[in-house]
Amino acid sequence: MSTPRRAALPTARLVALTALAMLAFAGNSLLGRVALKHTGIDPASFTTVRLASGALVLWLLVRVRGTAAGRGDWASALALFAYAAAFSFAYVSLPAATGALLLFGAVQATMIGHGIRAGERLRGAQIVGFALALAGLVGLLLPGLSAPPLRGALFMLGAGLAWGVYSLRGRGAGDPTRITAGNFLRAALLAAALSALLAGSARLDTAGVGYAIASGALASGMGYAIWYAVLPALKSTQAAIVQLSVPVIAALGGIVFLGEALTLRLALASAAILGGIALFILEKRPAAAAPVAAPARRR
Protein backbone atom coordinates (compact mmCIF):
# COMPACT_ATOMS: atom_id res chain seq x y z
CA MET A 1 0.00 0.00 0.00
CA SER A 2 1.29 3.42 -0.85
CA THR A 3 1.28 5.84 2.05
CA PRO A 4 -0.26 9.21 1.19
CA ARG A 5 1.98 12.21 1.56
CA ARG A 6 1.00 14.42 4.46
CA ALA A 7 -0.38 17.72 3.28
CA ALA A 8 0.67 21.01 4.77
CA LEU A 9 -2.35 22.40 6.59
CA PRO A 10 -2.26 25.18 9.21
CA THR A 11 -2.50 23.57 12.64
CA ALA A 12 -5.62 25.46 13.70
CA ARG A 13 -7.42 24.51 10.51
CA LEU A 14 -6.33 20.89 10.79
CA VAL A 15 -7.61 20.64 14.37
CA ALA A 16 -10.90 22.35 13.50
CA LEU A 17 -11.60 20.17 10.46
CA THR A 18 -10.63 16.98 12.30
CA ALA A 19 -12.94 17.86 15.18
CA LEU A 20 -15.74 18.64 12.72
CA ALA A 21 -15.31 15.23 11.06
CA MET A 22 -15.45 13.43 14.41
CA LEU A 23 -18.58 15.36 15.35
CA ALA A 24 -20.14 14.29 12.05
CA PHE A 25 -19.31 10.62 12.65
CA ALA A 26 -20.78 10.76 16.16
CA GLY A 27 -23.74 12.67 14.75
CA ASN A 28 -24.65 9.64 12.65
CA SER A 29 -25.31 7.65 15.81
CA LEU A 30 -27.36 10.43 17.38
CA LEU A 31 -29.40 11.09 14.24
CA GLY A 32 -30.01 7.40 13.66
CA ARG A 33 -31.13 6.83 17.24
CA VAL A 34 -33.48 9.80 17.44
CA ALA A 35 -35.03 9.00 14.04
CA LEU A 36 -35.59 5.31 14.69
CA LYS A 37 -36.69 5.71 18.30
CA HIS A 38 -38.65 8.96 18.33
CA THR A 39 -40.14 9.24 14.81
CA GLY A 40 -42.24 6.92 12.67
CA ILE A 41 -39.68 6.11 9.95
CA ASP A 42 -38.78 2.45 9.50
CA PRO A 43 -35.15 1.21 9.34
CA ALA A 44 -35.22 0.30 5.63
CA SER A 45 -36.59 3.69 4.60
CA PHE A 46 -34.08 5.47 6.85
CA THR A 47 -31.26 3.52 5.18
CA THR A 48 -32.48 4.35 1.68
CA VAL A 49 -32.93 8.07 2.34
CA ARG A 50 -29.59 8.26 4.17
CA LEU A 51 -27.59 6.59 1.39
CA ALA A 52 -29.40 8.43 -1.40
CA SER A 53 -28.85 11.85 0.18
CA GLY A 54 -25.22 10.98 0.90
CA ALA A 55 -24.73 9.90 -2.72
CA LEU A 56 -26.25 13.16 -3.94
CA VAL A 57 -24.00 15.34 -1.77
CA LEU A 58 -20.87 13.39 -2.71
CA TRP A 59 -21.81 13.55 -6.41
CA LEU A 60 -22.24 17.33 -6.15
CA LEU A 61 -18.86 17.67 -4.42
CA VAL A 62 -17.19 15.66 -7.17
CA ARG A 63 -18.86 17.74 -9.87
CA VAL A 64 -17.86 21.01 -8.18
CA ARG A 65 -14.26 19.83 -8.24
CA GLY A 66 -14.57 19.31 -11.98
CA THR A 67 -13.95 15.57 -12.06
CA ALA A 68 -16.18 12.81 -13.36
CA ALA A 69 -18.50 11.22 -10.83
CA GLY A 70 -18.66 7.50 -10.25
CA ARG A 71 -16.04 4.80 -9.73
CA GLY A 72 -16.24 2.35 -6.86
CA ASP A 73 -17.41 -1.24 -7.28
CA TRP A 74 -20.35 -3.45 -6.35
CA ALA A 75 -18.53 -5.58 -3.79
CA SER A 76 -17.56 -2.50 -1.79
CA ALA A 77 -21.04 -1.04 -2.24
CA LEU A 78 -22.50 -4.25 -0.81
CA ALA A 79 -20.32 -3.88 2.29
CA LEU A 80 -21.38 -0.22 2.60
CA PHE A 81 -25.05 -1.18 2.25
CA ALA A 82 -24.70 -3.98 4.82
CA TYR A 83 -23.17 -1.51 7.28
CA ALA A 84 -25.88 1.12 6.73
CA ALA A 85 -28.79 -1.33 6.89
CA ALA A 86 -27.54 -3.16 10.00
CA PHE A 87 -26.79 0.23 11.61
CA SER A 88 -30.40 1.33 11.08
CA PHE A 89 -31.99 -1.88 12.38
CA ALA A 90 -29.67 -1.78 15.42
CA TYR A 91 -30.72 1.72 16.44
CA VAL A 92 -34.35 0.69 16.76
CA SER A 93 -33.42 -0.65 20.20
CA LEU A 94 -29.88 0.47 21.09
CA PRO A 95 -28.99 3.71 22.91
CA ALA A 96 -26.73 6.02 20.89
CA ALA A 97 -23.69 5.55 23.14
CA THR A 98 -23.89 1.76 23.26
CA GLY A 99 -24.41 1.57 19.51
CA ALA A 100 -21.41 3.78 18.75
CA LEU A 101 -19.20 1.80 21.11
CA LEU A 102 -20.24 -1.57 19.62
CA LEU A 103 -19.81 -0.22 16.09
CA PHE A 104 -16.38 1.24 16.76
CA GLY A 105 -15.19 -1.83 18.65
CA ALA A 106 -16.34 -4.17 15.88
CA VAL A 107 -14.67 -2.07 13.17
CA GLN A 108 -11.36 -2.07 14.99
CA ALA A 109 -11.62 -5.77 15.87
CA THR A 110 -12.24 -6.59 12.21
CA MET A 111 -9.23 -4.61 11.03
CA ILE A 112 -6.96 -5.89 13.79
CA GLY A 113 -8.13 -9.45 13.13
CA HIS A 114 -7.35 -9.01 9.43
CA GLY A 115 -3.83 -7.89 10.30
CA ILE A 116 -3.30 -10.93 12.52
CA ARG A 117 -4.68 -13.25 9.82
CA ALA A 118 -2.34 -11.64 7.28
CA GLY A 119 0.63 -12.57 9.46
CA GLU A 120 1.18 -9.43 11.54
CA ARG A 121 3.13 -10.35 14.66
CA LEU A 122 1.83 -8.85 17.88
CA ARG A 123 4.03 -7.55 20.66
CA GLY A 124 3.26 -7.83 24.37
CA ALA A 125 1.40 -4.53 24.72
CA GLN A 126 -0.66 -5.26 21.62
CA ILE A 127 -1.76 -8.63 22.99
CA VAL A 128 -2.78 -6.99 26.27
CA GLY A 129 -4.64 -4.21 24.42
CA PHE A 130 -6.49 -6.62 22.14
CA ALA A 131 -7.46 -8.85 25.09
CA LEU A 132 -8.64 -5.81 27.09
CA ALA A 133 -10.80 -4.54 24.23
CA LEU A 134 -12.28 -7.99 23.64
CA ALA A 135 -13.03 -8.36 27.35
CA GLY A 136 -14.81 -4.99 27.26
CA LEU A 137 -17.03 -6.10 24.37
CA VAL A 138 -17.85 -9.40 26.09
CA GLY A 139 -18.57 -7.63 29.38
CA LEU A 140 -20.89 -5.18 27.67
CA LEU A 141 -22.91 -8.00 26.10
CA LEU A 142 -23.17 -10.29 29.14
CA PRO A 143 -26.76 -10.80 30.33
CA GLY A 144 -27.97 -8.44 33.04
CA LEU A 145 -30.31 -5.55 33.74
CA SER A 146 -28.07 -3.04 31.94
CA ALA A 147 -27.12 -5.27 29.00
CA PRO A 148 -28.12 -3.90 25.57
CA PRO A 149 -30.85 -5.74 23.63
CA LEU A 150 -29.20 -8.77 22.02
CA ARG A 151 -30.80 -8.34 18.60
CA GLY A 152 -29.77 -4.71 18.35
CA ALA A 153 -26.25 -5.53 19.58
CA LEU A 154 -25.85 -8.26 16.96
CA PHE A 155 -27.04 -5.92 14.22
CA MET A 156 -24.50 -3.28 15.31
CA LEU A 157 -21.67 -5.80 15.52
CA GLY A 158 -22.59 -6.85 11.99
CA ALA A 159 -22.54 -3.20 10.93
CA GLY A 160 -19.05 -2.82 12.38
CA LEU A 161 -17.86 -5.96 10.59
CA ALA A 162 -19.23 -4.65 7.28
CA TRP A 163 -17.64 -1.23 7.77
CA GLY A 164 -14.33 -2.88 8.65
CA VAL A 165 -14.48 -4.89 5.41
CA TYR A 166 -15.34 -1.72 3.47
CA SER A 167 -12.40 0.08 5.03
CA LEU A 168 -9.97 -2.75 4.31
CA ARG A 169 -11.05 -2.80 0.67
CA GLY A 170 -10.26 0.90 0.46
CA ARG A 171 -6.63 0.85 1.56
CA GLY A 172 -4.50 2.55 -1.06
CA ALA A 173 -7.47 3.72 -3.14
CA GLY A 174 -7.32 6.66 -5.53
CA ASP A 175 -9.59 9.70 -5.27
CA PRO A 176 -11.54 8.88 -2.08
CA THR A 177 -14.45 11.29 -2.59
CA ARG A 178 -15.03 10.14 -6.16
CA ILE A 179 -14.86 6.45 -5.24
CA THR A 180 -17.08 6.91 -2.19
CA ALA A 181 -19.65 8.76 -4.32
CA GLY A 182 -19.86 5.78 -6.67
CA ASN A 183 -20.18 3.33 -3.82
CA PHE A 184 -22.89 5.40 -2.11
CA LEU A 185 -24.89 5.46 -5.35
CA ARG A 186 -24.67 1.68 -5.73
CA ALA A 187 -25.48 1.14 -2.05
CA ALA A 188 -28.51 3.43 -2.36
CA LEU A 189 -29.86 1.21 -5.15
CA LEU A 190 -29.42 -1.85 -2.91
CA ALA A 191 -31.20 -0.02 -0.09
CA ALA A 192 -34.06 0.89 -2.44
CA ALA A 193 -34.41 -2.81 -3.28
CA LEU A 194 -34.59 -3.61 0.44
CA SER A 195 -37.26 -0.94 0.92
CA ALA A 196 -39.25 -2.42 -1.96
CA LEU A 197 -38.96 -5.87 -0.40
CA LEU A 198 -40.20 -4.54 2.95
CA ALA A 199 -42.77 -2.15 1.46
CA GLY A 200 -45.52 -3.65 3.61
CA SER A 201 -43.88 -2.32 6.78
CA ALA A 202 -42.69 1.00 5.34
CA ARG A 203 -43.42 4.08 7.43
CA LEU A 204 -42.44 7.64 6.60
CA ASP A 205 -42.89 10.94 8.36
CA THR A 206 -41.43 14.38 7.87
CA ALA A 207 -39.20 14.34 10.94
CA GLY A 208 -37.79 10.87 10.23
CA VAL A 209 -37.00 11.73 6.62
CA GLY A 210 -35.38 14.98 7.77
CA TYR A 211 -33.11 13.14 10.20
CA ALA A 212 -32.22 10.60 7.51
CA ILE A 213 -31.30 13.38 5.07
CA ALA A 214 -29.19 15.08 7.74
CA SER A 215 -27.46 11.77 8.49
CA GLY A 216 -26.73 11.11 4.83
CA ALA A 217 -26.01 14.57 3.47
CA LEU A 218 -24.26 16.16 6.45
CA ALA A 219 -22.96 13.50 8.86
CA SER A 220 -22.06 11.01 6.11
CA GLY A 221 -21.49 12.87 2.82
CA MET A 222 -19.96 16.08 4.15
CA GLY A 223 -18.37 14.29 7.11
CA TYR A 224 -16.50 11.83 4.89
CA ALA A 225 -15.47 14.60 2.48
CA ILE A 226 -13.97 16.63 5.36
CA TRP A 227 -12.26 13.55 6.82
CA TYR A 228 -10.66 12.61 3.51
CA ALA A 229 -9.46 16.21 3.13
CA VAL A 230 -7.57 16.14 6.46
CA LEU A 231 -6.50 12.49 6.34
CA PRO A 232 -3.35 13.11 4.25
CA ALA A 233 -2.19 15.62 6.88
CA LEU A 234 -2.35 13.06 9.70
CA LYS A 235 -0.04 10.21 10.53
CA SER A 236 -1.72 6.81 10.41
CA THR A 237 -1.58 6.44 14.19
CA GLN A 238 -2.98 9.94 14.66
CA ALA A 239 -5.87 9.15 12.30
CA ALA A 240 -6.66 5.95 14.19
CA ILE A 241 -6.33 7.43 17.69
CA VAL A 242 -8.45 10.51 17.01
CA GLN A 243 -11.37 8.25 16.08
CA LEU A 244 -11.41 6.98 19.66
CA SER A 245 -13.26 10.20 20.41
CA VAL A 246 -16.32 9.19 18.35
CA PRO A 247 -18.00 6.86 20.90
CA VAL A 248 -17.23 9.37 23.67
CA ILE A 249 -18.85 12.21 21.71
CA ALA A 250 -21.84 9.99 20.92
CA ALA A 251 -22.18 9.07 24.60
CA LEU A 252 -22.12 12.71 25.69
CA GLY A 253 -24.57 13.63 22.93
CA GLY A 254 -26.91 10.83 23.98
CA ILE A 255 -26.86 12.05 27.58
CA VAL A 256 -27.31 15.75 26.76
CA PHE A 257 -29.71 15.60 23.80
CA LEU A 258 -31.52 12.28 24.16
CA GLY A 259 -31.65 11.93 27.94
CA GLU A 260 -29.83 8.59 27.92
CA ALA A 261 -28.28 7.27 31.12
CA LEU A 262 -24.58 6.46 31.46
CA THR A 263 -24.54 3.08 33.22
CA LEU A 264 -21.60 1.70 35.16
CA ARG A 265 -21.42 -1.25 32.74
CA LEU A 266 -21.16 1.08 29.73
CA ALA A 267 -18.53 3.24 31.46
CA LEU A 268 -16.36 0.24 32.35
CA ALA A 269 -16.80 -1.35 28.92
CA SER A 270 -15.92 1.94 27.22
CA ALA A 271 -12.74 2.28 29.26
CA ALA A 272 -11.71 -1.31 28.45
CA ILE A 273 -12.55 -1.18 24.73
CA LEU A 274 -11.19 2.26 23.94
CA GLY A 275 -8.20 1.88 26.24
CA GLY A 276 -7.34 -1.51 24.77
CA ILE A 277 -7.60 -0.24 21.20
CA ALA A 278 -5.48 2.81 22.03
CA LEU A 279 -2.83 0.59 23.59
CA PHE A 280 -2.83 -1.63 20.50
CA ILE A 281 -2.58 1.26 18.03
CA LEU A 282 0.13 3.16 19.93
CA GLU A 283 2.28 0.04 20.04
CA LYS A 284 2.09 -0.45 16.27
CA ARG A 285 4.81 0.77 13.98
CA PRO A 286 3.57 3.83 12.04
CA ALA A 287 3.90 2.01 8.72
CA ALA A 288 1.61 -0.78 9.88
CA ALA A 289 -1.26 1.39 11.09
CA ALA A 290 -4.14 2.28 8.82
CA PRO A 291 -6.96 4.80 9.13
CA VAL A 292 -10.30 3.30 10.03
CA ALA A 293 -12.63 5.12 7.70
CA ALA A 294 -11.13 4.52 4.26
CA PRO A 295 -13.01 4.56 0.95
CA ALA A 296 -13.55 1.40 -1.03
CA ARG A 297 -11.12 0.80 -3.86
CA ARG A 298 -11.95 0.49 -7.50
CA ARG A 299 -11.02 -2.71 -9.26
Automatic annotation (TrEMBL):
The chain crosses the membrane at residues 12-31, 43-62, 74-92, 98-116, 128-146, 152-169, 181-202, 208-227, 239-258, 264-282. It comes from Thiobacillus sedimenti. The lineage of its organism: Bacteria, Pseudomonadati, Pseudomonadota, Betaproteobacteria, Nitrosomonadales. This is DMT family transporter. InterPro entries: AA-Vitamin_Transporters, EamA_dom, EmrE-like. It is a multi-pass membrane protein. Residues 151-281 form the EamA domain. Pfam families: EamA. SUPFAM superfamilies: Multidrug resistance efflux transporter EmrE (SSF103481). PANTHER family: AMINO-ACID METABOLITE EFFLUX PUMP-RELATED, INNER MEMBRANE TRANSPORTER. Keywords: Membrane, Transmembrane, Transmembrane helix. It is found in: Membrane.
